[in-house]
């Protein structure tokens, strides 16, 4: 005669009723044919569920954002984050364009964006680090915050670190793609024009700042999708956490 696993049923019921290992035990109960007992996930979101759901969402969102900007034309082809000539030297580039140096100006713009695209993948490790540090309080604040609350959290945790990591990579990339040479040539041509005074500008710092800003802009867009578009919630956990 087949023995019924009463001791196991009792043990499972006690564990489920206290909410311990709820997801795992619910699945195991179903496999054994034991009626499930309402858990924290069924009656409301507990801290563990919120943190897990947010980390899954943010892992997905950051991955998409980084890949979007790291590809060719990720910055250059996206008008929302394309790095343009800084306002401080816009009069310089406008004048040079009229004097026949527009190609040189265009080369600098393209080079700035290519440098940003090359640096972008470095952001991933900092996002991963911020996810590991996320607390229950952080998670609840993010869930209850605005459409870019998670992006703001990431910016506060990683913005300065990413800025510092990006700058040497962007400076090197600007050299490799010829943007630095084109920029220096452009400014030399401007300085050679009559009736103008020389001007200086830290182009590497400017590109770095705009690259980081563009990355967080794209991350904010990914977060908004997950919060507002049910189709962007690819898993049951995301639907549970963001469907509230």
**Helix share of residues?**
over 70%
Number of helices: 11
Sheet with the most strands? Answer: none
Approximately what portion of the residues adopt beta-strand conformation?
under 5%
Uncertain segments: 1-43
Structural class: mainly alpha
Write down the Rg. 26 Å
Taken together, the total number of domains comes to: 2
| Number of strand elements | 0
Order of helices and strands: HHHHHHHHHHH
Mean pLDDT: 76
Which descriptor suits the 3D outline? elongated
Distance between the termini: 48 Å
Can you tell me about this structure?
With 244 residues, this protein is mainly alpha-helical. The chain has 2 domains: 44 residues, no CATH class; 197 residues, no CATH class.
Relevant terms:
244 residues, mainly alpha, elongated
Write the layout of secondary structure elements.
Elements: H1 6-17, H2 22-32, H3 40-43, H4 47-70, H5 90-119, H6 123-133, H7 136-144, H8 149-176, H9 179-192, H10 203-228, H11 236-242
Helix pairs in contact: 1-2, 4-6, 4-7, 4-10, 4-11, 5-8, 5-9, 5-10, 6-8, 8-10
Summarize the structure.
By secondary structure, the protein is an all-alpha fold.
């Amino acid at each position: 005669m087949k023995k019924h696993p009463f001791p196991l049923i009792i043990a499972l019921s006690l564990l489920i009723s206290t909410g311990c290992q709820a997801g795992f035990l619910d699945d195991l109960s179903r496999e054994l044919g034991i009626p499930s007992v309402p858990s924290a996930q069924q009656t409301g979101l507990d801290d563990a569920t919120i943190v897990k759901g947010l980390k899954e969402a943010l892992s997905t969102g950051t991955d998409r954002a980084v890949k979007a900007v790291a590809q060719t034309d990720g910055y250059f082809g996206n008008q929302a984050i394309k790095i343009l000539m800084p306002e401080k030297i816009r009069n310089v580039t406008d004048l040079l364009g009229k004097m026949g140096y527009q190609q040189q100006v265009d080369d600098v713009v393209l080079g700035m964006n290519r440098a940003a695209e090359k640096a972008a993948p470095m952001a991933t490790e900092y996002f991963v680090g911020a996810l590991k540090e996320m607390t229950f309080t952080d998670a609840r604040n993010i869930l209850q915050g605005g459409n870019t609350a998670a992006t703001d959290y990431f910016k506060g945790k990683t913005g300065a670190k990413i800025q510092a990591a990006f700058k040497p990579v962007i400076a090197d990339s600007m050299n490799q793609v010829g943007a630095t040479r084109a920029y220096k040539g452009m400014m030399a041509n401007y300085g050679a024009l009559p009736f103008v005074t020389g001007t200086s500008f830290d182009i590497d710092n400017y590109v770095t700042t705009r690259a980081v800003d563009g990355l967080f802009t794209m991350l904010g867009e990914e977060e908004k999708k997950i919060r507002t578009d049910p189709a962007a919630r690819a898993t049951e956990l995301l639907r549970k956490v963001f469907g509230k």
